[in-house]
Amino acid sequence: MDKEVKSIGIFDSGLGGLTVAKEIIKQLPKESITYIGDTARVPYGSKSPETVVRFTTECVKFLETKNIKMGVIACNTASASGLDIIQSNFKFPVIGVVNPGALAAVKATKSKKVGVIGTEGTIKSKAYEKAIKSLDNEIEVYSKACPLFVPLVEEGWIDTTVTRMVIEEYLSDLIKNNIDTLVLGCTHYPIIKNTIKSVIGNDIKLVDSAEETALTVKDIVFQMGMLNTNENKPQNNFYVTDAPEKFVEVGEKFL
Ligand code: DGL
């Protein structure tokens, strides 16, 4: 008899987590995905850690009702605000994107000087800094909150004059520290990756946590013996807490 088919639950504050969903779908094409974006309460980046943890837990509880085998907190702000508290509410594994992103940065840097950009909440939490230093204490981490990047991406201003000016304004001081690696510590930033690259040059490696997170998901699902062996086509379901039409319209940019 077929084993019960459970999906991989993915949470984000909105639609940015689709960058992580895309990578998981790419690396685990037989798995089904259940995604929830908290579009009613986005952005999380400017909210307190307590509120972010409460909202995130509520959304993962919703995913729990959809028969998931593990949860992925694709939102960097939520991953950085109290992943351990969120995890303690669930019996299935729940992972965030900070540790995989930190690992990718440690693998990438040669000069041991790493930049991290993210929302105000992510940068304030120092979660990336702690995670990178716990892997290699010699690495120097330079951080900068870039709150204007999220609305620019949602507006579809991927490579406009304004976007380039904002990138320059935020990143010019950061790159003066001779970093050779920059962590894109926010779901939205991979969308403007090429614009960032063209402003700061090709010498700085850009790291986004999506790929490393998908590898971690793969490992966990494999270790749990829960890889989907059913030959039926996977079913991907997407839920939002408000404005589904906007999710469909902007979501296309992310997938
Ligand atoms: N998903 C958030 C993150 O990765 C960005 C959007 C928000 O502020 O909620 O940090």
Could you say which small molecules are bound to this protein?
D-glutamic acid
Total helices: the number is: 11
Question: What is the end-to-end distance?
Answer: 34 Å
Sheet with most strands: strand arrangement: 4-3-1-2-9
Note the overall shape: globular
Q: Would you write up a description of this structure?
A:
Helix 1 links the parallel strand 1 and strand 2 (about 35). By secondary structure, this protein is of the alpha/beta class. It starts with 6 loop residues before the first strand and ends with a helix. The strands form two sheets. Strands 4-3-1-2-9 form a five-stranded parallel β-sheet, with helices on both faces. Strands 6-5-7-8 form a four-stranded parallel β-sheet, with helices on both faces. The chain is built from eleven helices and nine strands. Helix 4 packs across helix 6 and helix 4 crosses helix 10 (about 210-225). D-glutamic acid binds near residues 76, 118, 122 and 188.
Salient structural properties:
binds D-glutamic acid, alpha/beta, 4-stranded parallel beta sheet, 255 residues, 47% helix
Nutshell version of this structure?
The protein is an alpha/beta fold and about 260 residues long. It has helices at about 20-25, 50-65, 75-85, 100-110, 120-125, 125-135, 150-155, 160-175, 195-200, 210-225, 245-255; strands at about 5-10, 35, 70-75, 95, 115-120, 140-145, 180-185, 205-210, 235-240. It has 11 helices and 9 strands.
SSE inventory with pairings:
Blueprint: E1 7-12, H1 18-27, E2 33-37, H2 49-64, E3 68-73, H3 76-87, E4 94-96, H4 98-108, E5 113-118, H5 120-125, H6 127-135, E6 140-145, H7 149-154, H8 161-175, E7 181-185, H9 193-200, E8 205-208, H10 209-223, E9 237-240, H11 244-254
Parallel strand pairs: 1-2, 1-3, 2-9, 3-4, 5-6, 5-7, 7-8
Helix pairs in contact: 1-10, 2-3, 4-6, 4-10, 8-9
The chain binds D-glutamic acid (DGL).
